[in-house]
């Protein structure tokens, strides 16, 4: 089972960026725990601060993997292009956020991506990623490119 974790802008600063909101651990420190927790899955991750690179990665992986865990960061609330890419690909996407978006500023409470995702997980810090990967593992897809409706 191949799962990509795709992180958007500013997530390269986890552990240093607003630790009261986003915690004190980097994603790179957390990732090996995910790999250990899910030996039945091949996990890869990619981070970019550039919208076009995130789009390119969705297009590249979106027809070959079993799932994508997407934390689009601030693009969640602004990117019609990312929302369209998630809608266009065959692979299911689970949207994740470290903080509880509903407890944040008004503009953060609207996700342009969510309606095109299999589900959304927010508010559990880095554990949000673990919950998303667990969902994919629980689905036990029979073939690449399954889509949850």
From TrEMBL:
Catalyzed chemical reaction(s): 3-dehydroquinate = 3-dehydroshikimate + H2O
Active site location: 22, 97
Pathway: Metabolic intermediate biosynthesis; chorismate biosynthesis; chorismate from D-erythrose 4-phosphate and phosphoenolpyruvate: step 3/7
Binding residues annotated for substrate, in chain numbering: 71, 77, 84, 98-99, 108
Gene Ontology BP, a term: quinate catabolic process
EC number(s) given by UniProt: 4.2.1.10
InterPro entries tied to this protein: DHquinase_II (IPR001874), DHquinase_II_CS (IPR018509), DHquinase_II_sf (IPR036441)
A single GO molecular function term of this UniProt record: 3-dehydroquinate dehydratase activity
Name of a matching Pfam family: DHquinase_II
Uppermost EC category: lyase
UniProt keyword annotations, A-Z: Amino-acid biosynthesis, Aromatic amino acid biosynthesis, Lyase
Keyword Lyase: yes
Site location (Transition state stabilizer): 17
Described function: Catalyzes a trans-dehydration via an enolate intermediate.
Subunit and interaction comment: Homododecamer.
Family: Belongs to the type-II 3-dehydroquinase family.
Family matches, as HAMAP family: AroQ (MF_00169)
Name of the protein: 3-dehydroquinate dehydratase
